[in-house]
Amino acid sequence: MKKLPLGIQTFSDIIEDGYLYIDKTKFIYNIASQGKYYFLSRPRRFGKSLTLSTLGSLFEGEKELFKGLYLYDQPWDWKKWPVLRFDFSELSEEQNEEELKQLISESIKSMVKQYDLILDENLPYNQYFKAALKALPDKAVILIDEYDKPILNNITDPAKANKVKEILKGFYTIIKGSDAYVRFAFLTGVTKFAKISVFSGLNNLTDLTMKEAYADLCGYTEEELDLYFGDEFINIARNINSSVEDLRSKIREWYNGFRFSSRDVRMYNPISILNFVLDRKFKAYWFETGTPMFLIQLMKQEGFAPEDMEKLFCRDSDFSTYEVDHLLALPILFQSGYLTIQNYRESNFIYTLGFPNREVKSSFLENLIKTYTPKGSGPTVSPLVYLQNSVENNDMESFFENLDILFAKIPYDIHLPYEKYWQSLFYLIFTLMGYYIEAEYRTSKGRIDAVISLPDRVYLFEFKLAGEKTKGADGLMEEAKIQIRETDYAKRFLDGGKPVSLLPVVFEYRKEQAAIQWEENV
Asked: With DSSP H G I counted as helix, E B as strand and the rest as coil, what are the percentages for the chain, rounded to 5?
């Protein structure tokens, strides 16, 4: 098998140094030959930079790099065009507006030097850009990677983010105004931040993000795994004493599932597959950094519970762009890869969204609970281990003692006086322990707050929250017990042949304290 291109995003390096390249040049050819201005949003580490690099090699006329690939035999003139690259991922987290302008100017200067152009380097960044485009010996190809990074770096400071947005807007306005000097332009990013305002100066972009024809432009399909990794999977299965079918099934569970359009094609994240083939271990490779804090704050503001992410329904308009000072959680969760399309009903234009796979779900929830339990409050792993042991031994007294320990680590200033908040924490904890929990399970007689089915037992939970403006904990406990008895929740599960534990639980939240009351088999 060829060398794996981990961390390599330059097309020429991959080809010349003999690394594995999954042939995406059919898409590259179609894009380059059918249009002029494009935009693509994809989650991080999905191959956006490699896509731009491949386009760059095409427009620089490097025909021999494409030998053996789809594009090599297509009718292309292989003319060499001036290619101007902007990579905003190079900006630091602490960058200011002047550094952004400087990065733009330096990127232009690097190309200006190639053509020995004489320009006034004291011009403002946007005017310098305009002058360079006019002075080039031929039309320019403009490739912009991670266009949204400057905005994301400042997203918790709306005033600064809006200043950055205006700089980018001025930059893009030059591109549209210089149409006569532009051969081709392609922009990529994770999010579609304020397409209306940021790109108002460049409103003629063709957005490929949810186009059916380009759903598999970035990432690996099932067929591509068969073609490029099939023999390696046979070797891995043999080494771990597994059948190839079982191995592939587990690979799908862990890493497949990203879907970017109404067309039902599921994609693997390249970084996950490449690392798995290298390490031969199932672990979270793509999700190497924590969930952005601003996204968690958005979820809290909107009452967006983690268990809601198992199944969400939305329409096309819910994927619409948004403003820096009016962010919405759902489009960001989708565009950044935490949610993906599970199903699409064309009859009424309804999308069903959910977690793409096990890697994303487990890592997202783990990072989420870490934000609830800050550094310095002790390890979160140990209580979870104790909780898991307690459940497996059906020792509910020990379970709730350890649950109290974990909840005590959560600072009171992020507690929310809503039953849904505590129910969400419960969901997070059980999911991280590896158990499947069904929240708000519906029966013919009512709704059970949480159902957890183990190989040898079923647990049914009814939650209540006692706060400053509610009944006391004792009164709510009685109310929960009556609800469990009168709705006969257990009856629905008795046919399974497993014992059923009924557990009313009251979370008591008063000022700076949170406590738990519970009973079993009421």
From this structure: 50, 20, 35
Residue 147 tokens, joined: 């266009």
Q: Which residues, 6+ apart, have CB-to-CB distance to 33 below 8 Å? A: 74, 76
Cα distances from 459 to residues 174, 239, 393, 447, 451, in angstroms, run 62, 38, 13, 14, 6
Return d(Cα 397, Cα 518) in angstroms, integer.
9
Give Cα 461 to chain centroid, integer Å. Answer: 31
Check residue 372 and give its pLDDT. Answer: 62
The per-residue pLDDT for 229 is 97
| Other CB atoms within 10 A of residue 384 CB | 19
Helix (H) or strand (E) holding 470: none
Max Cα-Cα span within the chain: 85
Domains and CATH numbers, the chain: 11-209 (3.40.50.300), 222-279 (no CATH), 293-358 (no CATH), 373-518 (no CATH)
CA-to-CA distance for 243 and 258, rounded, in angstroms? Answer: 25
Residue written as token pair 């460049």: 202
The C-alpha angle 71, 73, 78, rounded to 5 degrees, equals 70
Given this model, what pLDDT does residue 131 score? Answer: 94
Residue with tokens 């399974």, as numbered in its chain: 496
Measured CA angle at 23 (ends 206, 246), to 5 deg: 110
C-alpha 509/C-alpha 503 separation (Å) is 19
pTM: 0.83
How is 255-308 classified by DSSP, letter by letter? H--B--SSS---BB-HHHHHHHHHH-----SS--SPPPHHHHHHHHHTT--GGG
At residue 516, what is the residue type?
A: I
Contact 277, 229 (CB under 8 A): yes
- Count the alpha carbons within 13 Å of 95 in the hemisphere toward its beta carbon: 23
Question: By three-state DSSP, how is residue 374 classified?
Answer: coil
Residues of the chain with pLDDT under 50: 196, 376-377, 379, 412-416
Rounded distance, CA 40 to CA 148, Å?
12
């359009």: which residue's tokens? 261
DSSP 178-244: TGGGEEEEEEEESS-BTHHHHTGGGTT-EE-TT-GGGTTSSSB-HHHHHHHHHHHHHHHHHHTT--H
With tokens 């995003």, the residue in question is: 9
Q: Which long-range contacts (CB under 8 A, 24 or more apart) does 67-75 make?
A: 69/21, 69/23, 69/25, 70/23, 70/25, 70/26, 70/29, 71/25, 71/26, 71/28, 71/29, 72/25, 74/29, 74/33
Query: What SS3 state is found at 497?
Result: coil
pLDDT by residue (tens digit) across 134-152? 999 999 999 999 988 888 8
DSSP run (H or E) holding 343: strand 340-345
Nearest to 186 by CA among 8, 12, 54: 54
